[in-house]
Specification:
Blueprint lengths: L4 E3 L17 E2 L4 E2 L2 H7 L5 H9 L3 H10 L8 H19 L1 H8 L6 E3 L18 H14 L8 E10 L2 E9 L6 E7 L8 E7 L2 H5 L7 H15 L2 E6 L8 H12 L4 H7 L12 H7 L4 E5 L3 H9 L3 E6 L10 H11 L10
Parallel strand pairs: 1-4, 8-9, 8-10, 10-11
Antiparallel strand pairs: 2-3, 5-6, 6-7, 7-9
Length: 350
């Protein structure tokens, strides 16, 4: 089929789709090294054979054992095998959280197991096969694509990002509702259910890149990088929500009003906007991809704490991140504290 994604070898592009790919699954009682281990074991009622397959070193070994004991395969296997495969794929792509996002990211391309020796699960090598594995994967892909948190954000790609504080991994995402692009920057590795130091940082071109002293954004971003590098693990979600959601050009208009005496809240409201238009619900999808469910959140903004908790993220600690106060942003910081409820220790009066 045109524009199809062909997969087979686990080391090749799109190898994560292969049943031989090294992603474990747990059926509620036992953890299996791969889908292939689980699938081959389900062919048998004999627990000695099941145990041998379970302990086999590689998926190829598990496959070979399934063939070796072919005469002892359960009599109803032909009727059960697609259900077993569907269940195995469901476990694989939901228990290994990033995989589900990778699977959704293959849309809209047809998925084809390009297997020369298999014309049932694969395409037979020349397209004549039933490609049942590819079709089950496409069915699961459709289910996940409309299910939270997979539908909240679409993963695009990852790459290394060398910085002054070390090499971070940069992960790109797209909001499917708005088309807005967001980035997550991760450092180090963490265990599932371990609280991870993170920051939700809304884009601020003037503060982050143009060295503006009208705000504290650039200073907070640099401190977040430093804190994460010092701890050894963490993540920065860099969110494209310029000007607390009003956009760059409206932010410049707001700056002009501030030059004439308005504070940051009054300026936004004078332009017809709420003081803060940012949303954080899609962050649940990014954190799910990153396998983060508990966080230590670097923020002074109670709205961010509340938003993550409402999204089901366990905020175990708020880490203050007060940086960059100067004579040009004292009134800005005071307005954030008195009008937006930001938890700042020292502010100048308005």
């Amino acid at each position: 089929m045109e524009n199809s994604i062909l997969f087979y070898e686990p080391e090749a592009p799109y190898g994560f789709l292969s049943n031989f790919a090294p992603f474990p699954i747990n059926d509620g009682a036992v953890t299996w090294k791969t889908v292939e281990h689980f699938y081959q074991a389900q062919k048998f009622n004999d627990q000695n054979i099941v145990a041998q397959i379970h302990h086999s070193r590689t998926p190829a070994d598990a496959y070979a054992l399934g063939r070796e004991f072919n005469e002892q395969v359960r009599v109803d296997w032909h009727q059960r095998k697609e259900t077993v495969m569907r269940d195995a794929l469901q476990m694989k792509f939901t228990q290994n959280q990033a995989l589900g996002h990778w699977l959704v990211a293959t849309r809209p391309h047809p998925l084809v197991e390009h297997a020369f020796k298999d014309d049932y699960w694969g395409d037979g090598g020349d397209g004549h096969g039933k490609n049942r594995l590819g079709k089950l994967l496409m069915n699961l892909r459709q289910e996940l694509s409309i299910t939270p948190p997979y539908n909240l954000i679409h993963f695009i790609e990852s790459a290394n990002l060398p910085t002054d504080w070390g090499i971070f991994n940069m992960h790109g995402f797209e909001d499917p509702d708005t088309g807005i692009e967001h980035v997550a920057l991760t450092f180090g590795n963490w265990k599932k259910d371990e609280p991870v130091l993170i920051r939700l940082h809304s884009e601020c071109l003037t503060g982050d890149a143009l060295f503006s002293r009208r705000c504290d954004c650039g200073s907070q971003l640099r401190r977040a990088f430093q804190n994460i590098a010092q701890v050894g693990t963490g993540a920065i979600l860099y969110l494209r929500q310029e000007g607390r959601g009003i956009g760059l050009l409206n932010k410049i208009r707001a700056y002009h009003l501030q030059d004439q005496g308005a504070d940051t809240v009054e300026a936004n409201e004078a332009l017809g906007f709420a003081a803060d238009l940012r949303q954080y619900d899609f962050c649940r999808g990014i954190l799910h991809y990153l396998n983060i469910s508990k966080v230590k959140l670097m923020t002074n903004n109670p709205k961010k704490v509340k938003a993550l908790r409402e999204a089901g993220i366990n905020v175990v600690e708020r880490v203050p991140i007060q940086e960059g106060q100067n004579i040009f942003n004292e009134r800005y910081l005071s307005a954030k504290a008195t009008k937006l409820g930001h938890m700042l220790d020292v502010i100048a009066p308005i």
